[in-house]
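Form 7-S
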Amino acid sequence: MKLLKRISLLVVVVFIAMQFFSPTKNVSPGNHTKVFITETNPTPELQNIFENSCYDCHSNNTKYPWYNNIAPISYWMANHVNEGKEHLNFSEWEKYSLDKKDHLLEELEEEVVEGKMPLMEYTYTHGDAKLTEGQVNDLVEWVKQTRIIYQLGKQPK
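Output:
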């Protein structure tokens, strides 16, 4: 019993200490998606989808909910954002080659059609991030049109 109390106390102390050390937040000033928007020219409706469903994990600027200030949730969210940006970062669109952009759009379509994106965990707390069938269809059509332009070796506008 004494050992259980010590372990419990240690867990509480570690939890409290974690609150003073949080991961670096993915927040920086500026318009992070301007190049992507200018180059790919999505409709205002699609821009809204990207804003609500994609950018928090796939850009250099995340809008954090209040509970991100609580460890270990903050570490878990930081890991999700970092992993998302490794796969696709709309803020760094200009750094990708035409072939890479084409491939990223192909992956975007695949993930959305298969229901893998946005993540189910994200849509639990961000109801407006969940995509309707119509939104998925609009996104797929836009991706196909934009990919054709990339495959022709030109920047879409």
